[in-house]
Amino acid sequence: MSPLSGSAASLGLRACHVCNLVSRVSHPRQAAHCPRCGAHLHARKVGSVTSCWAFLIAGYILYIPANLLTMMETGSLISYRKDTIMSGVVHLWKTGSWGIAAVVFIASILIPLLKLISLTVLLISVQRRSTWQPRQRTRLYRMVELVGRWSMLDIYVVTLLAALVQLGSLATVKAGPAAVAFGAVVVLTMFASLKFDPRLIWDPLYKERGHERDAQ
């Protein structure tokens, strides 16, 4: 049997979105519930594309203040400075901390932006019912899910520095307003990736194969 000969949904199988139990539904058009947790069963996540777009647009909006506002404020008896994410990266690079600067730039600027762009590409391709490179698009989605948690690295660094420096009495470190916006961007992109249903990538291929069999 060809791997595209039939989808699980066409065979009457439904995966519970709460406990992930796969069940067979005798009448696909009738309401069904998970035999284990009682949740309502759906062939696809309800409102997946709409909800994903909402989280994604909010993420794009907050990405701007996250990078323009102050991320970290550091002060001592002789100096006081405010840094955005980018100015912090530049400062680390100039002071010789090239490795840390590269990690912060990749985790705090590059990865969130690539996540937003990747999810946008996936959503547009799903809405256009594209059949282009479904395996690669599915791998792209899995990668977005995998690297998402590392985007919080900058917040962890600020929190750790603040906790360590507060042990002394001659310096202070505190998070700026960008930390809230940046954390919101990370959370919103995580919600967007969770709400996106990768099975929508494959649906046009199943329907295309079904039309081909009908024509034959």
Q: CA-to-CA gap between the ends? A: 17 Å
How many whole angstroms does the radius of gyration measure?
Answer: 23 Å
Strand content: 5-15%
Shape: elongated
Largest sheet: 3 strands, antiparallel
Organism: Geomonas silvestris
Transmembrane segments: 46-66, 98-126, 147-169, 175-194
Protein name: Paraquat-inducible protein
Subcellular location: Cell inner membrane
Which secondary structure elements does this structure contain, and how are they paired or packed?
Layout: E1 13-15, E2 22-24, H1 48-68, E3 72-76, E4 80-83, H2 85-94, H3 98-127, H4 134-147, H5 153-165, E5 171-175, H6 178-195, H7 199-215
Antiparallel strand pairs: 1-2, 3-4, 3-5
Overview of the molecule:
With 216 residues, the protein is mainly alpha-helical. It folds into two domains: 1-43, no CATH class; 45-215, Butyryl-CoA Dehydrogenase, subunit A, domain 3, CATH 1.20.140. The protein has seven helices and five strands; from the N terminus they run ββαββααααβαα. The strands form two sheets. A three-stranded antiparallel sheet has the order 4-3-5. It is elongated and about 75 Å long.
Which short descriptors sum up this protein?
single chain, 216 residues, mainly alpha, Butyryl-CoA Dehydrogenase, subunit A, domain 3, 3-stranded antiparallel β-sheet, two-stranded antiparallel ribbon, 7 helices, 9% strand, elongated, disordered C terminus, Paraquat-inducible protein
Brief rundown of the structure:
It is found in: Cell inner membrane. With 216 residues, the protein is mainly alpha-helical.
